[in-house]
Amino acid sequence: MREIVLVKYGEIILKGLNRSKFEHMLLCNIKRALSFIDGVYVWAKQAVIYVEVPEQDKLNMVIERLSKIFGIVSVTRAGVIEKDLETIKKGAYEYCRSALGAGVKFKVEAKRSDKSFPYNSIEIGKHIGGYLHDECGGAVVDVHNPDITVRVEVREKDAYVYCQEMRTKGQGGMPIGSGGKATLLLSGGIDSPVAGHMIAKRGVEINAVNFFSFPYTSERAKEKVIELASIISQYTSKINLYIVPFTEIQLQIRDKCPEDQMTLIMRRFMMRIAERIAVQSGAKALITGESVGQVASQTLAALGVTNDVISMPVLRPLVGMDKSEIIERAERIGTFETSILPYEDCCTVFTPKHPQTNPKLAMIEKSETHLDVDFLIERAMDGVEMIEVLPE
Amino acid sequence: MIYLDNAATTKPSEAAVQAAHAAMVNFGNPSSLHGAGLTAEKAVEGTRRIIAQEMGVKAKHIYFTSGGTEANNTAVFGTAYRLAPRGRHVITTKIEHPSVLEPFKMLEKKGFDVTYLDVNSDGVVNLEQMADSLNENTTFVSVMHVNNETGVIQPVEQIKEIIRKKSPNALFHVDAVQSFGKLPVQPLKWGADLLSVSAHKVHGLKGTGALYIADGVHINPLLHGGGQQSGVRPGTENTAGIAAFGAAISEFDTSVAFSYMTELRNFMKKRLIDEIPDIKINGSDRYSAGSVLNASFIGIKAEILLHALEARGVYVSTGSACSAHHPAPSHVLTAMGCTRGEIMGAVRFSFERAVTIEDINEAVDIIREEAARIPKIR
Questions:
Q1: ipTM of this model?
Q2: Are the beta carbons of A97 and A135 closer than 8 angstroms?
């Protein structure tokens, strides 16, 4: 039987007059994500998006891709049947019989959005339920506590049948692009990719900044960051990754500022540079993977000191999460394995033995007077390399 | 580019590449009965003879493997399990390559009694401990010829003497991966019953190695299959890699290699000691194979120096990967009693015949500049 992919979306439906705009964005995002497969045809009708895939052996690949697109609640493959009650009965049997073995409790839920179809939803359900019960030896109807829910939807063009339990859960969230753009401070660690994913989920387009300290970090560390960006781009489509040369700044801080303030002053530079890149690229906020109290530079006092150098809002989606919760998310989105590869990132090389946990802004500012901050930032900006990262 | 990482791998020689190409074009299976098979067989057997000649042994005692790791695994497992009914005590050293050490650790898990011999601060194995450890249950001893991190030569001939006296039935394996083609490798003279070599360390291709097994020695094969190579190592031979191996070895001049590389090493060592403060050379001079110079830059993380040198076209290696989160200090330098700082700052320079004194001069100039630029660890 020919199959199609049905896409259900969630939060967008609640939008008022803007709804069609959001739907259009989602549709575009889906088309872009599937553009590498020939002949895919996508259309929307009555709060369902239909994806037709001429090469049926690519259905799993399509579902896999769709399950990563924000704004989608669920993705289902469904059998396509001609709109005729007898044909639907036989088709439902053919499509679902392998799931309806002896002793399996099932129910049929029918839905008719084509009101010209001569049977209403309840009648369709009854007919098909009876037919499946008779044909599948030993499967029993149980409308309250079913193992399998057979869904039949009679829609404008065709009727569709699928088992509800076979649905793939989507990411939820909002379509990328519906929430503007933000700049992610992407290290090689576990946290920042998760933070980027969480904000992107709210419909925010992401670009990323990485601070590169060659030779203190290697080419492999850079490759690792590109790999992480590539994994995130499976959800967001293309990501512009800005690689900022950071060695000179770190060496200057190390030579001219107190050791216990090194990390904080370094982070202040990162914030300043990230904001510059954000402004240039049209982003309206920064995203970091900070979580209160995780390390010395993430105490409230430290966050205040690093936040003080910029005026743009900083989104910290992990702010109240434990490490174990962050790791769980990293595993789910697929960045964890890459994040734990043992290449040093710049945070681990210039680490003071006893960093300040309760810094005073005035003291940090005083230390920074030993540095030519503007000059160092200009120099770093001059050396920025931009890489367009695509899903692999 | 100045490539001083020849203990990791070497550039395949022109002759090796051509031989590999020819073997790929003449794609026959050496076991096939027709003419195409014969051509392939000739290439394989040709290399077998060349290796045997280089070692001064008979060709039929050479078995091709997928590399040094497989040769070492085959030697350790194939012998230890074969001889297990006679005894379950086996001996190796603390400075072996992981492809020997890990199989020994596996034997330990399977209930074997394993002795890991110490080395002195020069990196030479402790012979007294060897003599004390050998007993009537000892069936197998494995000691490397030249250490891959320090280039120190182990006294394999003396070791065999001690084995003969204390446990005459024990078999002796030598991992000669780092010495073959650079020093004379003479299993008969040394009394080695098994000996491993690898092609890509001597200008051949990756994925090819060989194991010498002495006359009358029987092992349990690791792999089982179509009976190629008398069933000791079945599997269709890697004809391209084997043909290249033979071509690479044909260009050896072992006597010249040793003296030339020793000259390079001594020259580089002198300049480093004279010009770089806080440097320490690891491993004996007296027993050096000349192919490796291991130097600790005290106060510098070797990996940082490595990347700084890489940016200037000088390729070296650190004793082992060293990261803040995954410290993996070199087991070899640890066994030699080096301090933490010495291990962290250890860089390995390894040579080959095409490296020139001018290369070394240029490399040392760059090393001196970069080492001075990197801030010392406080």
A1: 0.71
A2: yes
